Amino acid sequence: MNTSPHPAHPFLVVDDEEGILLAIDTTLRLAGFNNILTCNDSRDVMDILSKNQVEVILMDLNMPHIGGEDMLSEITGEYPEIPVIIVTGVIDVGTAVNCMRTGAFDYVVKPVEEDRLITTITRALEYRDLKRENLALKEHILTKKLENPEAFHEIITNNKKMLSMFQYIESIAPTSQAVLITGETGVGKELIARAIHSLSNVKGNLVNVNVAGLDDNVFSDTLFGHIKGAFTGADRARAGLIEQASGGTLFLDEIGDLNNASQVKLLRLLQEGEFLPIGQDTVKTTDARIIAATNEDLFTLQKEGRFRKDLNFRLRTHHIHNPPLRDRMGDIPLLVEYFLEHATKELNKKKPMVPKELITLLETYYFPGNIRELQAMVFDALSRHKSGILSLGAFKSHISKEQEESFPEEHMQIGDGTFSSFERLPTLKQATRMLVEEALKRSNSNQTIAARILGISQQALSKRMKKAGEK
Predict the structure, then answer these.
(1) For a disulfide at 212, which of 178, 254, 266, 319, Cβ 3.0-4.6 Å?
(2) Cβ distance 180 to 319 under 8 Å?
(3) Neighbours of 163 (CB within 10 A)
(4) In the 8-state DSSP scheme, what is residue 1?
């Protein structure tokens, strides 16, 4: 059973009528909120706020001692970051307008409709999270430093764009809103999810699930669990992963492959924090944060009718795009060193010297499999290594096999490549010379690597360069 406080910091309910306090407290707890402070004397409010970090205030207007409007002015003056929801039986447009001008977040009339109250509170929490995120982003922009660099120890980089991404992650991590991580296969999206979970300071666990290929029944059973007798073979109740992630984080990988029926259930989970175990009629609630990841373009899937528009936007409340390795080639020396260290320990081998040509060779490669592919290349090369300097052979062999697949197909389309912007096409000899010059530039004038890029032997390249030199 979930005993963690939800939300992390309490709501404060202020009303001089004990019956109203009890009714609102009960409504909130039935909706899954269990961290609530109540106050029946407006004179105690400022003292409570000085001792507690309050998320949202729900307050009556007609109270003895200090009236609601005066209390509102005092609260918004000292604690402008706390959303204040006015809950009162007074139906007066003028009063409502004055309260909004003074800084009230919203205005709810008694008797309170449960759905209206919960919706208003949910929006207030989202507003509070947004203000926190904006403040944190401003601080990061000014300092340009990471407050918790240790949270990113698994991500090896010295890239400025990656550092900016880390700063953004530090800003959004403490919020409870959903996060969508996008990026190609092998860029390390799960490492980003781990960093977010680590920085969120939640007490619960990080629970991972790959939703690719799951039909709706398996998805529902995996995430939401089932009660005893829910289906044939369900001889006992089983909690789903969402309950295991209570007070923590649920990471849904390959979210672009989720079927439509399951998308509806996930949307409800995100919007209301509610789910139904298979076979159960009573709704359960969760405070687990949802992080999703995909290597697909959800907007494209949306246009094709394969992904819900509302779910797409709900997931990307915060969006992080993890760039491919080819956009951060300066990290290759660091990554090679890191993977080599790990490979020597796992394979129980002495660490070899790395030839300078290796980095140049790798920097000319497109890396369709990104960091995961580089890791596999390093491990494979070390497994073949005998002694001395690390051989380039295994790397060259892998790159040669993948060269055709790794070259982007769109660049090979007629009228859509390098020469499409030319008013007049170069001759074949001129184009060949341009290719040779570019290959030498990319390989730092290393003819062996330049020849590999061009798909010819070094001898053939030398002949072409000799002829060009003679002319």
Answers:
(1) 254
(2) yes
(3) 16
(4) -
For residues 162 and 185, the answer to whether their CB atoms sit within 8 Å is no
Assigned token pair, 171: 């800003």
pTM check: above 0.70 = no
CATH topology of domain 425-471: Arc Repressor Mutant, subunit A (1.10.10)
CATH number of 11-129: 3.40.50.2300
- The distance between the two most distant Cα atoms of the chain, rounded to a whole number of Å, is 100
- Please list the pLDDT of the chain residue by residue as tens digits (471 residues): 445 678 888 999 999 999 889 999 999 988 888 899 999 999 999 999 999 999 999 998 888 889 888 999 999 888 988 999 988 776 677 777 788 888 889 888 888 888 889 989 988 888 888 777 766 666 655 556 788 899 999 999 999 899 989 989 998 898 888 999 999 999 999 999 999 999 998 889 999 999 998 999 999 999 999 999 888 888 899 999 999 999 899 999 999 999 999 999 999 999 888 899 999 888 888 889 999 999 999 999 999 999 999 999 999 999 999 999 999 999 999 999 999 999 999 999 888 988 888 998 898 888 999 999 999 999 999 999 887 889 888 998 888 777 655 455 544 454 455 666 666 767 777 777 888 888 888 777 788 777 777 777 777 777 777 766 655
Could you confirm whether domain 144-323 is CATH 3.40.50.300? yes
